[in-house]
Amino acid sequence: MKKTLTLCLITMVLSISIMGCAGEKDAGPEKQQNGTEGSVADGKEENAGSEEPIRVGCIQDTSGGASLAGQPNQWGAEYAVKVINENGGIHGRMIELYSRDCQNDAEVGVTCYRELVDEVGVCAIIGPPLSNPASAWVELSEEDQIPIVGHFMDEVCTTDPDTGEAYPYMFLAEPSCSVQSRILASYAMENLDVKSVATLFNSSNAYAAAHEAPFIDYIESNGGQVLARETFTWTDTDYTAQAQKIASLNPDAVLLCDYCNQMVTSYDNLRDAGYKGIILGANTMYPPFNELVKNDIEECYFVQNYDLNNGKIAELVGIQQKETGTDYPTSNVGFGWDAVQVLANAMMQASDPANGQEVRDILEADTREVESCGGSKITIDPATHRPTLDMGIYIATYDENKQVKCLEYITLEQ
Amino acid sequence: MSVQLLVSGISLGAVYALIAVGFAIVFSILKFSNFAHGGMISACAFMGFFFQRMFSSPPPFLITVLFSALCGVVLSLLIDTAAYRRIRAKQAPNIYYFLASITVAILIEQVLTVFFGKNLYGYPNIFKSTTFTIGGIRFSSMDTLILIISLVILSVLIYVINRTRIGLAIRAVAINPATSRLMGINSDRTILLVFVIAGALAGVSGVLLGAKYSVYPTLGSSMMMKGFLASVIGGLGSLGGAIAAAIALGMIEIILTYFFGALSIPVFLFGIMLVFLAVRPEGISGKFAKDKV
After folding, report:
1. Which residues of B touch A104 (CB under 8 A)?
2. Is residue B290 part of a domain?
3. Cβ of residue A71 closer than 8 Å to a chain B Cβ
4. CA A369 to the chain's CA centroid
5. CA dist A386 → A147, A152, B260 (Å)
6. Which residues of B131-151 are buried (b: 16+ CB within 10 A; e: fewer)?
7. Residue numbers in B near A327 (CB within 8 A)
8. H or E segment and range at residue A304
C-alpha cells in the first residue's frame, strides 16, 4: 500500500512538473513577443497590442540526423521574427513563432504539422531544409490552406513530377537541388575541363538523390561521360569499396552530395583509395567539412548559397555563433532568415496576413525581389513556386588555410 | 585489386570487432545484449574530444584513450547502478535488461544531441599520412591501429578470463551466480568488474571511432548494428567468435559492395545472420548461450 501511495505521489509530482514545463514551452512565443515589445519601447506597443498576433509555425529537425542544419535554421527563423517584431511586426501585428522538431522523419513531421495547424492554429509554416518531411505536407497544406515556405530543395516538394504543375501551398526560398547541381556541373565542364565523372551518394537521401540525377543529366546532355554511380545507405558507415571502384576508374571528377558527415567519410575514403582527381560537392561541403576530413583538401569545389564573410549573412552568423556557441559559420542561419523574409513580404501585402489563401496567392504572384541575407534577390516563379533563375549560387573552394573561398557567383540564366 | 579488397575488408572488420567485443563481454556474464554500449561509445568519444581540446597542444593520443577509458568505466558503473542493479536484485527476466539497455542508449543519444547537436567535432589527425603502402597494397593507418588494438584487447581479455582467478570468478558467475556465491565468489563485485571492462572498452572504442570518423551523438549507435551482427554470428558471449565474425563481416561487406553495390548488403548480411540463427545459433564459436535477448 505504502509503495502504491509513493508511486502515485511520484507520478503526481512528475505530472505537475511536466505540465509546468509544457506550460512554459507553450508560453515561449508570447514571452519572446513581450520581450520584444518591451525592448522596442518606441510607441509601437499600443499598436502591437491592439490586434491578434499572427501565429506562424516553424518545423525543423533539431534532434535528428539533420539537426546540424535544423538548429541554425531554426535560429535564423526565430531571429528574423524577432527583428520583424522589433520593427513593428506585420502592420503592427506581432508574429508568434511556434517551433517544433520533426527529427528528419516524415511521420513525425506530419504530427508536428497537425499539432501546429489543429491545436496551435498557425496560419503559415516555415519549413525545414529537408525534402523527406516536406513532401509529406504537400496535400495537407492544400487541404488546410496553409502556405509553407522553406528550403526543401528537392523539386518534388514544390512541383508535381508528373505534370510539372506547382503545388499550391509549397514555396522554396533558394535555388533547387537541380539548379545547384546544374550550375556545379556547368562550372566543372567549362572551367575545370571535366569530361568524365562518377558519383558517390546515399540513394535513400532525397537531398542527395535530387542533386545527383540533374548533375548526371547535365553531364550526359553536354557530351560528358559517366563512369560510375556508386551508392550507399543510411546504415553504412564506410564507403571504402565504392571509393576503390571509383579510384580504379579514375574519372576527372567525383560528385559528393550528402549531409556533412557522409561527405567527410566519402572524401576521406576516396583519397585513401588513391583517387587524386577533382571532388565536387553540394552546399553541405561548407564548414565543418574542412575541420573534419583527415586528408588534405585539394581539388575540391562546391556550391555555396552565401558568401559567409560579407553582408547581412556575415552579421547573422556572427550573432548566431555568439548566442549558441556554434563553432563555425553555417549557411542554414540564412535559410531560416530568408524563408521568414519571403513569408513576411507576402503577409505585408495581404489585407489579412493570417489568411492562408490570400498569403498564398501573394506568395505565388507577388513575391518579387525580396532581399536575401546573401545580397541576392528572391523572386518566386509563379509556375514553379521556386526562385527564378536569376537567383544563383557561389562556386567555392578551400584555400591553403582550409578557409572557404568563393570563386564565382553563377546563375543558370548565364 | 582482390588483395586490396581483402585488406580493406579486414580493416573494416576491425572497426566492427571493437564494438562486438564490448557486446560479447557483457553478454558472456549477464546474458543480454547491452545496447547502451553504443550510447557509451558516443559519450566517451565526446569526453575524449573535449579532454584533448582542453590543452593548447593536444596531449599524446594514448593519454586521451586512457582518459576516455576511465570515463567509460565511470559511465558504465553509473548505468549499472541506475538501470541494471535493481533488475538484477529482483532477478527479473532478461527482457527487462534489454528494455533498460535500449532506454539508456536512446537517453544518452538524446542528451548528447541536446547539448552538442549543433556541432560536429573532429579529433586532430594522429597520423601524418592516412594510408601507407606495402607491396602495392594500401593500408589505412587508422584501421591498422584499430585492428592492432582490437587484437591486443582480445588477447588480454582471453588471458584474464582463462588464466587468472578473476577470470575464473567471471566464468563461474557466468554459469551460475547463485552457486558461485555459495562457493565464496562475490558475484555482485564480479558483475561490476565486467561493467568496468565494458566501460573501458567503450572508452577506447569512442576515441578510436571518433578519430577515424568524426564525433557526433549517433556515432556509437550507427555502428551498433554491425557490431551486434558480428556478436550474434560469432556466438553471443564469445570474444574470439565476435572478432572472427567481425573480420569476416567486414570482408564480406567490402567484396559484395564492390561487385553488387551497397543496396544488396543488408539483404546478404541479415540473410547470413538468419541462417546462423536457424542452423547454428551458437555461432562460429560453437558455445551455446541459453538466454539470447
Report:
1. none
2. no
3. yes
4. 20
5. 14, 10, 38
6. beeeeeebbbbbbbbbbebbe
7. 119, 121
8. strand A300-304
Domain that holds residue B189: 21-220
Per-residue pLDDT of A292-319, as tens digits, reads 999 999 999 999 999 998 899 999 999 9
- Whether the Cβ atoms of residue A287 and residue B120 lie closer than 8 Å to each other: no
Report the C-alpha gap between B206 and B186 in whole angstroms.
30
Please list, in sequence order, all residues whose beta carbon lies within 8 angstroms of the beta carbon of residue A367, skipping any fewer than 6 positions away: A171, A342, A345, A346, A378, A379, A380
B6 touches chain A (CB under 8 A): no
Task: Return the closest-CA partner of residue A182 out of A214, A209, A136.
Answer: A214
Domain count, chain B: 1
Q: How many CB pairs under 8 A join A and B?
A: 105
In-domain check, residue B203? yes
B25-54: pLDDT as tens digits = 888 777 788 889 999 999 999 999 999 999
Q: What is the mean pLDDT of residues B123-134?
A: 88
- 588534405: which residue's cell? A296
- Please determine, looking at this structure, whether the domain spanning A177-304+394-410 carries the CATH number 1.10.10.10: no
Using CA coordinates, name the residue in chain A closest to B266: A235
Q: Which CATH architecture has domain A51-175+311-383?
A: 3-Layer(aba) Sandwich (3.40)
Whether A230 and chain B come into contact, CB under 8 Å, resolves to: yes
Runs of H (alpha helix) within A145-205: 177-191
In a domain, B44, yes or no: yes
Please state the domain extents for chain A. 51-175+311-383, 177-304+394-410
In this predicted structure, the answer to whether residue A139 has a pLDDT above a threshold of 90 is yes
Phi (first) and psi of residue A353, to 5 degrees: -65, -15
Q: How many CA atoms are closer than 13 Å to the CA of A136, on its beta-carbon side? A: 18
> pLDDT digits over A221-270, tens only?
999 999 999 999 888 888 999 999 999 999 999 999 998 889 999 999 99
Are residues A29 and A97 in contact, defined by beta-carbon separation less than 8 angstroms? yes
Burial A31-47 (b: 16+ CB within 10 A, else e): ebbeebbeebeeebeee
ipTM: 0.83
What the block records as the C-alpha cell of B80 is 549499472
Domain membership flag for residue B3:
no
| A51-175+311-383 and A177-304+394-410 share one fold | yes
